[in-house]
Design brief:
Structural class: mainly beta
Distance between the termini: 43 Å
Strand content: over 45%
Order of helices and strands: HEEEEEEEEEE
Helix content: under 10%
Length: 200
């Protein structure tokens, strides 16, 4: 239990350092929300084998730099995953995103992120007692570090108005650390479809 608390504090401190630069931004802020599918897999392994495990994500984006077509963005997100075979998880993360948009409104992006994920078993947990019987116990979850990459493609509507919005899809492989004594990290995937709105 003491180790879990130390991990939570460590990962939380790392995330606070990563998002500290979000303070004091004066550029327009975008809100985003997405839904998609989660899987346990290495990148590109299970594209043709689809099993639905829902994931939801919402957050804010802040622009640090922009040019004629490209811009560098930092995001902060809250999310949840339900995989009935592996885990129920909640996470908070931040990403550095480079987004390039054409004059037609089509844009592509790549990202690198870090976050904190807390994972629970998808079913009740039982522990062996001294009398040889199993007893249901409270699942306090497992704190892990989350490191992600991302590729995205989207289209922005109403580009010349003060409140543009866009739709997008993202492919996001990530790994959570530590996982077990035999496996350092667990590779996972998120496919997402979402929308972004300008809120100020």
């Amino acid at each position: 239990m003491k180790t879990k608390r130390m991990n939570v504090l460590l990962y939380g401190a790392m995330l606070v350092c990563c998002v500290h630069t979000l303070q004091g931004q004066t550029s327009r802020t975008q809100f985003f929300v997405s839904a998609g599918n989660h899987s346990i897999a290495v990148p590109l392994q299970k594209i043709s084998h689809f099993t639905f495990h829902p994931t939801l994500q919402a957050g804010l984006e802040f622009t640090h730099w922009y040019g004629n077509h490209g811009r560098f963005i930092q995001s902060i997100a809250l999310g949840a995953v339900y995989n009935r075979y592996n885990n129920k998880s909640f996470f908070i993360s931040t990403e550095g995103i480079y987004r390039y948009q054409t004059g037609l409104g089509i844009y592509g992006e790549t990202s690198l992120g870090v976050g904190y994920m807390h994972t629970f078993h998808p079913s009740p947990v039982y522990a062996l007692q001294d009398d040889g019987h199993y007893k249901k116990v409270t699942d306090t979850g497992k704190p892990t570090l989350m490191v992600s990459l991302g590729l995205g493609l989207g289209y922005q509507f109403q580009r010349k108005t003060s409140h543009p919005f866009s739709v997008y899809t993202r492919y996001q492989p990530f790994i959570t650390l530590p996982y077990s004594k035999d496996l350092i990290g667990l590779p996972q995937l998120l496919w997402q479809v979402g929308t972004r709105f300008t809120i100020n």
